[in-house]
Amino acid sequence: MNGLPRICVSKGVQPGPLELQGSQARHLAGARRLRDGDAFLVFAGDGLEYPARVENVSHDRVIATVYDSVRQEPPPTPEVEVWCANVRVKRMEWAIEKCVEAGVNVFRPINTEHSARGKELSLGRHDRWRRIAVEAAEQCGRLYLPVITPVLSFEETLKGWTGTLVIAHQEGRPWFDITAKLPKHAPLAVAVGPEGGFSTVEIEAATQAGALVASLGPNTLRTETAAVVAVALARS
Ligand code: SAM
Fold this sequence. Notes:
Blueprint: E1 6-8, E2 16-21, H1 22-31, E3 39-43, E4 48-58, E5 61-66, E6 71-72, E7 80-85, H2 89-102, E8 106-111, H3 123-140, E9 147-148, E10 152-153, H4 154-159, E11 164-174, H5 175-179, E12 188-192, H6 200-208, E13 212-215, H7 223-235
Parallel strand pairs: 1-3, 7-8, 7-12, 8-9, 8-10, 11-12, 11-13
Antiparallel strand pairs: 2-5, 3-4, 4-5, 4-6
Helix pairs in contact: 2-3, 2-7
The protein binds S-adenosylmethionine.
């Protein structure tokens, strides 16, 4: 990364004039102190990144020119999902930010037998999760935006999954023993349980559906730490 500010323009980017308003303009003008003539980068989450230059800046409006794309990447493989038990608000937000930095494609918050938090998740909370994910994508340089799904139960999530699933469990087999044998390009999901862990019923249902059970190391990690470690291992 070259340290230039990066802005995600989710409606799409093309070379030519660009106007940014609201929080994005305030971020560039205020926090990043961009002035007329300064350079920044824009992307839309489709694998392309464009250089841009500020033409005119006020505290809540930035007019810029976008130039031809100079960076392009194919989507990373394999597609990596993390199913993360819905833990306390701040920890969940931390997990989303760090999993996005570590390269998760899809972050699925799940309710499990031992975690019933947030069944009636407000739209505001989900919007905030998405904002955190976009900001993390801007900061870490990735070119594809992650998907943050609404909260579903572990059972429902399991029913809808057709790829490879690994249950993160301290008593599981060593991570690289099992993942070394997995197909390199097939979608991979790792499920991480709540403070109380997955129930035996949940682990059994998952293994009957073909899931593997893997350890992330000798120590007991908090849910949010386990989620980030799992994504980093899966991405590696
Ligand atoms: N006492 C709980 C148990 O029996 O599983 C510990 C739960 S831990 C705080 C929360 C979740 O993080 C676990 O359900 C598991 O998915 C994951 N986790 C934590 N440490 C792990 C490790 N060393 N290996 C694999 N998964 C781990």
